[in-house]
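Risk register update: the risk of archive-format incompatibility is retired. Evidence:
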Amino acid sequence: MDNMILIDIETQSFNLESGIYEVACLVVENYNIVDSLYLGISIENYTGVKKYGYGFHNISKTKSEINKFRNLLTNYDYPLVAHNCPFDKKFLDFYEWLDVERDFYCSMRAIRLKEKSMRSYSLGSLISHYNLGAEADHEAFQDVSKLYQLLDIIRPDTWYKVGQQIQKQYSSKKTPRTREELENQYTVSYTLAGEIICFTGKSRFIRSDMQEIAIINGAKISNNIQSSTTMLVVGEDAGSKLDKAQEKEIIIISDDEFMEMVGDNIIS
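Archived output:
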């Protein structure tokens, strides 16, 4: 893909209601940066660490910032690329930052298709692997700049639009381990704290692996759609669980979107 708009947004949690605090974009043509945009309004007299949007005002509904973003997209009719694109896209859609249809592509997915032997494809792991720094900064402009450097090095060959399916390889099931069992082997986080996630459908990913990834990121697992279920992760041939989730207006994402969204801790 020759022309693209790289984007990184900073939010303070996985929850859509938490808001957007920073947005950074790089317009790339043939792997040359031709334009850029940074949106962020610092909190006066803030003395803490500026990461994950902390130290900035919530700009989710700030018309001046939304218009600047829309003007950039008007000037460059290129697809948007983010490293955790389903996550970024959901926030931009939720707060109506996009006034026209625009294709989204996930760089994590594209890099995974080019470099198949890496254990983790999180931005921080890639930055460290390619000696671009110790980890992700979790500051919008710094992170989108590192993403540009990574893409310039790797030059992915294959790009899939968000929501576009890759051919599946079906796998057998096993019972997932508990968080207590997993925390002795993997780094745990609270990225999905408060989420109760159900999985359904056939997938190229092992079901128990996805469940364990959810568990080490703070979620609880539901085997059926219940009143407490907050998210359904779907593969192919999803049946009655999908119908029930739609009836209850539960968040529904694909298995690929789920794996792209929580790429830091990959079970092996």
